[in-house]
C-alpha cells in the first residue's frame, strides 16, 4: 500500500499508541495487575449514582430520549449546552465570554488535533514552518504525535526548585524561554499531566503577556483543572482573556467514555474549530453534553467538584504519598509537589537503570506505572533527569495503591543497593 505523507506520519511508530497498547495488553494478560498507569479517572460511586439518575430521567422522557439518540447535534455543539456553559463561566468564573466563544468537540484530544494542525506546521503563505511551544516540559504525552508532519513542537527545560526534604517543583525558566516568529502558540496543561504541577498565577500571567506581545495564543489545557473538574489542591485566580484558548473536557469529571471536549476562545477561532470538527466528525456525540447540561441546569456542578471529587482525590493523593514515603525511606527520591490532577511524579535521582527499564521490571512484578521519559517529548537535550522519573496514578483502591507502593519500594531499593 502506498501511503500519503499524512498516512505515513500517523501510522508510524508513536509513543502514545505504543503506551496505550502496552497498557491494554498488560491489563488483558494479567487483570490482577496493580494499575497505577493510564489517565482514567477513578470510579467515584456518588458521581455515578447521579449519572444513573440523570439517565433514568432521560429514558422516561421520549422527547429527551429522541434528542439524545436520534438527532445530530448542531456544528458548534448543542445550543442548550453552550448556553449553560457560557452562563456558568460568566457567573462562577467572571469570564467575559458568550455563546460565540464556545465550541464542542468529541473529546479534548480531538480539540488538540484540530488546534495543533490549524496553527503549527507549514504556514498558509508557505513562508515558515511553525511550532507549538511548551514552556515547561515534561508535558502531556498525548500532544506528541498529533502533528500531521514532523517538527511541530519545541519545549523548554524547567528549573527545579527543591522544597523540603523530599519534594520539588518545576518552574518556568523565563530567562531561557525563546519566542521567535516561528512560534505559533504557547501551550500548557494546568494542572500538568504528568507532574501534578500548577503553573503559578504569576507564571501564567507572564506567559499571557509574552503571548500577547508576540500576537500568538496562549493555550491552557484545563482537563484536570478549573472550572471543572477542579482537581486542584490550592487556590488560583485565573481570568480568561481574548488571546487565550482554553481546552476543557468532561473526562476527568468522570465521563471519559462520553468523549466531550470544550474549546473557549475568540469567536474567529471558534468558527474555524467548528468547521474542521464538522469536516472530521460531522457532529459531536450527544451523551456528554446532555448529562452536563442537566447537571449545570440543576446547579450541581460546583458541588460535584468541591464536595465529591476534590476530597476524594485529595485523600487518594495522601494514601499514595504516605505509602511512597514509607517504602522509599532512605533512598534519594523526590516527589513533585502534588498541586492537582491525580498523579504523583516520582523522581529517582541517579537511578542506576533507565525509567523505561524500571517500567518493564515493575510490569513483571505485577505493577503498571507510566515511564516518565516520553513526557519529555519536546526536549532534545541529553539530560539524565529525563530517564529518572515515573508517573503514578492514584485512582485505584487504597489496597492497590499500598501494595503497588510496596513493590515499587522493593524494586527500587534493590536497584540502588546493587550500585
Ligand atoms: N489533556 C490532558 C492533559 C490529558 O491528560 C488528557 C487525557 O488524559 C487529554 C487532554 C485528553 O482527554 P479527553 O480527550 O478524554 O478529553
What would you say this structure looks like, in words?
Strands 2, 3, 4, 5, 8, 9, 10 and 11 form an 8-stranded mixed beta sheet that branches. The protein is globular and about 65 Å long. The chain has 12 helices and 16 strands. It has 2 domains: 156 residues, Aspartate Aminotransferase, domain 1 (Alpha-Beta Complex), CATH 3.90.1150.10; 228 residues, Type I PLP-dependent aspartate aminotransferase-like (Major domain) (Aspartate Aminotransferase, domain 2, 3-Layer(aba) Sandwich), CATH 3.40.640.10. Helix 5 crosses helix 9 and helix 10 runs parallel beside helix 12. Strand 8, helix 7 and strand 9 form a beta-alpha-beta unit. It is of the alpha/beta class and 419 residues long. The structure holds pyridoxal-5'-phosphate. Pyridoxal-5'-phosphate binds next to helix 6.
Low-confidence stretches: none
Q: Into how many domains do the coordinates divide?
A: 2
* Order of helix and strand elements from N to C terminus: HHEHHHEHEEEEEEHEEEHHHEEHEEEH
The name of the CATH superfamily of the largest domain reads Type I PLP-dependent aspartate aminotransferase-like (Major domain)
SS field, number of helical segments: 12
| Coarse structural class | alpha/beta
Helix content: 40-55%
Multimeric status of the protein: single chain
- CATH topology name of the largest domain: Aspartate Aminotransferase, domain 2
Entry keywords:
12 helices; transferase; alpha/beta; 2 domains; binds pyridoxal-5'-phosphate; eight-stranded mixed β-sheet; Aspartate Aminotransferase, domain 1; 419 residues; globular; Class-I_PLP-dep_aminotransf; Aspartate Aminotransferase, domain 2; 40% helix; six-stranded mixed β-sheet; single chain
Amino acid at each position: 500500500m502506498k501511503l500519503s505523507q499524512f498516512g505515513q506520519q500517523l501510522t508510524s511508530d508513536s509513543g502514545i499508541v505504543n503506551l496505550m497498547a502496552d497498557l491494554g495488553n498488560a491489563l488483558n494478560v494479567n487483570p490482577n495487575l496493580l494499575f497505577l498507569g493510564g489517565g482514567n479517572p477513578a470510579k467515584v460511586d456518588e458521581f455515578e449514582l447521579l449519572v444513573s439518575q440523570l439517565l433514568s430521567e432521560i429514558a422516561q422522557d421520549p422527547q429527551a430520549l429522541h434528542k439524545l439518540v436520534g438527532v445530530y447535534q448542531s456544528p458548534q455543539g448543542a445550543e442548550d449546552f453552550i448556553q449553560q456553559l457560557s452562563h456558568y463561566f460568566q457567573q462562577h468564573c467572571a469570564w467575559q465570554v458568550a455563546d460565540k466563544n464556545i465550541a464542542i468537540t468529541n473529546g479534548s484530544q480531538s480539540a488538540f488535533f484540530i488546534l495543533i494542525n490549524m496553527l503549527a506546521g507549514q504556514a498558509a503563505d508557505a513562508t515558515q514552518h511553525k511550532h507549538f511551544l511548551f514552556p515547561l516540559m515534561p508535558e502531556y504525552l498525548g500532544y506528541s504525535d498529533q502533528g500531521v508532519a514532523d517538527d511541530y513542537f519545541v519545549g523548554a527545560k524547567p528549573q527545579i526548585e527543591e522544597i523540603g526534604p523530599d519534594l520539588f517543583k518545576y518552574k518556568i525558566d523565563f530567562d531561557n524561554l525563546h519566542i521567535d516568529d516561528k512560534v505559533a502558540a504557547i501551550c500548557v496543561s494546568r494542572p500538568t499531566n504528568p507532574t501534578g504541577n500548577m503553573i503559578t498565577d504569576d507564571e501564567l500571567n507572564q506567559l499571557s503577556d509574552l503571548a500577547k506581545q508576540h500576537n500568538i495564543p496562549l493555550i491552557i489545557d484545563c482537563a484536570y483543572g478549573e472550572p471543572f473538574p477542579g482537581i486542584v489542591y490550592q487556590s488560583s485566580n485565573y481570568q480568561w482573556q481574548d488571546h487565550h484558548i482554553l481546552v476543557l473536557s468532561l473526562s476527568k469529571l468522570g465521563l471519559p467514555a462520553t468523549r466531550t471536549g470544550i474549546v473557549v476562545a475568540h469567536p474567529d477561532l471558534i468558527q474555524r474549530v467548528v468547521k474542521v470538527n464538522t469536516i472530521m466528525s460531522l457532529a459531536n456525540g450527544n451523551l456528554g453534553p446532555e448529562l452536563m447540561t442537566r447537571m449545570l441546569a440543576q446547579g450541581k456542578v460546583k458541588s460535584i467538584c468541591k464536595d465529591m471529587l476534590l476530597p476524594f482525590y485529595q485523600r487518594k493523593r495522601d494514601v499514595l504519598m504516605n505509602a511512597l514515603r514509607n517504602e522509599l525511606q532512605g533512598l534519594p527520591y523526590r516527589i513533585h509537589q502534588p498541586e492537582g490532577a491525580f498523579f504523583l511524579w516520582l523522581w529517582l535521582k541517579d537511578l542506576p537503570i533507565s525509567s523505561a527499564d524500571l517500567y518493564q521490571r515493575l510490569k513483571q512484578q505485577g505493577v503498571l506505572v507510566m515511564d516518565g521519559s516520553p513526557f519529555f517529548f519536546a526536549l532534545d537535550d541529553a539530560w539524565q533527569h529525563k530517564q529518572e522519573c515515573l508517573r503514578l496514578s492514584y485512582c485505584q483502591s487504597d489496597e492497590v495503591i499500598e501494595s503497588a507502593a510496596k513493590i515499587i519500594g522493593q524494586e527500587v531499593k534493590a536497584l540502588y543497593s546493587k550500585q
